[in-house]
Amino acid sequence: MENRRFGGKKLSREDRNKKKFRRDPDGGPRRMGRIQRFTIPKGTDINYKNIAFLQKCLTERGKILSRRLTSANASQQRLLSTAVKRARLLGLLPVGSTKRK
User: Fold this and answer.
1) CB 89 within 8 A of CB 54
2) pLDDT for the residue numbered 87
3) Which DSSP helix (H) or strand (E) runs through 57?
4) Cα gap 50→90, rounded to integer Å
5) Residues of the chain with CATH 4.10.640.10
6) Rounded to whole angstroms, how far apart are CA atoms 44 and 65?
7) May I ask the CATH architecture of the domain 35-101?
8) CB 6, CB 16: distance < 8 Å
9) Residue 20: which residues within 8 A CB-CB, separation 6 or more?
10) pLDDT tens digit string along 2-47?
């Protein structure tokens, strides 16, 4: 029976384990790097009135950035999303962009 998963060749158990995961040059598994646009300091007041701060948390199309990009924890991200939604409701922030590719 051919092993189709590895190109039809019969491989030893060691070779199969080597082929499963790509490794970094230092031998560890590869991990995605975190690209942070900015960090949220601990004492920052996440409020709908702080428009300059909220605009940093939005893309140019008006979408809320993810936690991975803003380096916010879960509670900060919830506060951020409610603040952005309140600011949109009051007309302080745009709801969305009309520019499309």
Assistant:
1) no
2) 96
3) none
4) 13
5) 35-101
6) 17
7) Irregular (4.10)
8) yes
9) none
10) 545 555 667 677 766 655 555 556 666 666 565 666 777 777 788 9
Q: What is the pLDDT of residue 68?
A: 84
CA distances from 75 to 17, 31, 57, 64 (A): 40, 25, 15, 15
In whole angstroms, what separates CA 75 from the centre of its chain?
16
> In this structure, are residues 11 and 3 in contact, taking their beta carbons and an 8 Å threshold?
yes
The answer to whether 68 and 34 are in contact (CB under 8 A) is: yes
- pLDDT value at residue 40: 77
Model pTM score: 0.60
Cα 12 to Cα 4, 16, 17, 19, 21: the distances in Å are 14, 6, 9, 11, 16
Residue 54 has pLDDT above 70, yes or no: yes
